Structures are given as structure tokens and as C-alpha cells.
Amino acid sequence: MDIVSGAGTGLGLGMGLEWEFDMEHLGWMVDFLKGMVKPVAALAVVLMAVALSYTQRLRLEREMLYAIFRAFLQLSIIGFVLQFIFNRQNSGWIVLAYLFMVSVAGYTAGQRAKHVPRGKYIAGASILAGTAVTMFLLVVLNVFPFTPRYIIPVSGMMVGNAMTVTGVTMKRLRDDIRTQMNLVETALALGATPRQATHQQVKRSLVIALSPVIDNAKTVGLISLPGAMTGLIMGGASPIEAIQLQIVVMNMLIGASTVSSIMSTYLCWPGFFTKAYQLEAKVFSSE
Prior knowledge:
Layout: H1 2-35, H2 37-41, H3 43-55, H4 61-88, H5 91-112, H6 119-140, H7 148-179, H8 181-189, H9 194-197, H10 199-219, H11 227-234, H12 239-272
């Protein structure tokens, strides 16, 4: 009886330890599911938008639901990936995550400027240059420590903003040159360099692309509270600390966007002109 009782006790203890081990490993899943209660509740406003789309016959219901599902899936995956990177505290993971964001941003911006030769590579290189220079200065000046918890979110904001500005700059520059080909060709015939012949088009494309970033800086805090500032306040930080960080964010967005957009104009020229300094006809033949 003692042997049987001891064996039963040992078996029960083993099962109890195994259960505790499983619960420890599944704890993150339980916490994740608990945290998703509020996001799921917020789907009510999406369902309202779907209902309005249906009643107004906009036929956007499927697209709305697909967009929300995709956002949920992408954010969930990136959340687990960031948690993994944060726990490792390895500089290699920071660089890898940064290069991945730049690659996706370059592809997206290149898609916008699809008529620009090698547009995806130009956009990627421009975004890389603008964000890398800006991030280097911020780290050297000790504005942010070089840790995953700071660098990855900050670089994500810069890359996203630079992506939009670079895509608009490249597309606008190509379209403006196309609509004013006669003026550009006349300037080239008179001995102007490609830079001189397209100076006005370059200037216009940069002004149009950078204006939203500058206007956002002018009105920040007056019309709406930016995402970084709002997140800090909701997370328990004081409004003063949130404002200080938001000022840094606005500064870095203007810096990265300006460098990236200007760089893209320089990299576009080889594809716009021949070696004889003539406009490349095939680049400007399509709408």
C-alpha cells in the first residue's frame, strides 16, 4: 500500500509540476487574449462604418473588414516580434528590423512612382540615407539610447514619414518634367545641365512633398494631439514629458524627410536623362 501510495503521490506531483510548467509557457497567450478584449470591443465602430457603407451602397464593406483583419494580424505579429527583440537586447536585431522597415518602405514608395526607372531602389536608398543620418545624429547627441525599445519605434516613425514624402517627390518630379518637356529640352539645348534645366520642377516637387510635414509641425497640439504624445499620456506619463518627446519627434521627422526627398531627386536624374544630356523619351511616354 505504501508503494502504491508513494507512486500515486509521485505521479500527482509530476502532473502538478507539468501543469505549472505549461501554464508558465502559456501565460503570455493568456495575457494576450485578456489584452485583446478592448480592441475587440472597439470593433463596434468598424461595424458602424460597415453598416453605413452598406446602407449608402458604397460597396466598401469587404475592403473595410479586410483592412481591419490585416491590421489586426500585422500588428499582432509585429508585437510578438518586438517583444522577442526587446528581450534579446542585441544590436544586430535593431539593424535587421530597421533594414526590413526600409526595404518595405522603399518598395511601397517605388510603387507610387512606378514610372521612375529603378524607382524602388532609389526610394529605398533615399529613405535609408535620410533616416540613417537623422538617427545617427540623435544617438550621438544622446537624445535616444541605442536600445531596441527606443530605436525601433523611433526609426519606424521616421521611415514611414520618409516613405510618403519620397514617393510623392519622385512621382511629382517625373510628372512635372513630363508636362514641361519643351521647357526642359530648350534649357538643355542652350547648354544647361540636367540640374539647371529641371531646377523649377525639382523645387516644386520638394515643396509639395514637404509641405504637409511642415504644416503638421506648425499645427501640432492645436488641432490634434500626435500619436506619440497621446500614447505617452495614456500610458501614465506627464503631459510635460510627452510634449518634450513630441518636440523631438517633430524635429526628426522634418530632418529625415528633407534629406530623403532631396536625395531622391539626385538619384532620379540618371534615369531621366541620357548620357548626351537629353530626356529619356521612354520614361516620359506613358501617363
